[in-house]
Amino acid sequence: SPAGRLDLSTQDVAYSNLMDGYVTPGAADSSSLYDRVTRSGMGRMPPSPSSPLSSTQVANIESWIADGAMP
Fold first, then answer.
1. Residues whose CB falls within 8 Å of the CB of residue 38, separated by 6 or more in sequence, listed in order
2. C-beta atoms surrounding 53 within 10 Å
3. Of 5, 28, 47, 59, which is the most exposed, with the fewest CB atoms less than 10 Å away?
4. Which of 63, 65, 66 is nearest to 15 (CA)?
5. pLDDT value at position 48?
6. Alpha-carbon distance 37 to 56, whole Å?
């Protein structure tokens, strides 16, 4: 199991794990994943300040969740 408990090792495993409490389909603002990639400080993903997600990547995550988070 990964250190952060979110296993993203394969596409199927990642999707299953994201749907298990990290993503609220249709509601980015209620999704833990979106919260973690947009927050600053403790709990931010990815944790390294030297490798933050780009604004395009964050927007893609937001759109994917808003559109129903389909695989």
1. 58
2. 15
3. 5
4. 65
5. 77
6. 12
